[in-house]
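Hey all, quick one. A colleague (J.T.) asked me to put the cobalt (II) ion job into the tracker so the inputs and the structure tokens live in one place instead of scattered across chat threads. No bug as far as I know, just bookkeeping. Sequence used:
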Amino acid sequence: MIDSYEKAGKIVSKVISEASKLIKNDLAIIDLVEFVENEITKSGAGIAFPCNVSINEIAAHYTSPVNDENKIVTGDLVKLDLGAHIDGYIADSAITIMAPGDDLEEKFDENTLAKNQKLIEASDAALETAISTVRVGAEIGKIGANVEEAVAKYGFKPIANLTGHSLDQWNLHSGLSIPSVNDKNTTKLKEGDVLAIEPFVTDGVGWVTDTLSPYIYRFLKDKPFRMAHTQKVFREIKKEYGTLPFSQRWLSKDFNVNRLNASLRQLSQAMAIYPYPALREKTNCWVAQKEHTVIVEGDSCIITTK
Ligand code: CO
């Protein structure tokens, strides 16, 4: 089991570092997410969730819909969040890259560039602090308190309503939430707990709200449907993705897009599947994120995605 977690972690780490090198002005987001997902599959792992590429004030949960025409532009804060699994044992990791391009200095004044760079540094420091807090017996609220303090030193705020999460086989959110602020949770970490820790940092208010666009979903509950097309989509979801998140883009390979979107809406409304809309910083301020997956061990932890 630990072997599978570590194997998935090595694959995620390799794919993140290769994909990071592609990020630059004019790169189509869909090319980046498809590169990542193909590399994971080629490495012999499963895709744990659709590759997230969330840009600037979008903090999380954006993946390309089919025929996505959005492109990365110079100076964007690109948050690349991806996951792979071996036999359902998941590794989840994220990095923030400022998209390079020739017109960086023309597009941004010095202060803005320095601030955006500092957001990335603060997210690095926040994750490092969180990881150094992790040990058997550590209180979960204490991790958040330490992250909050580390981020405050940079003059920024962590996003309070986005948390890390414990992982279990075939389960991306297995019960524990790992906060980036002191949520007063006195639950203590146990030997062998597997955690995806992911502080998000912003110069805004530190809160995200839903956008209107869900491109990622997850199976919730079996339900009967009258429409044959919706039944067919639901069957495919259960068979191909089980309990793990999936994207509209993946299903569009087998279904007509308009009919697919209608069925996904119907399935969401019936709460047979759960939609994850892209999340935006409430005041449209930019966001940086860093994430690693760790396994709690004694008085520290193993970082599987290093
Ligand atoms: Co992640």
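Adding what we noticed when we looked at it: The chain has a mean pLDDT of 97. The pocket of cobalt (II) ion is lined by residues 81, 92, 94, 196, 198, 291 (CB under 6 Å).
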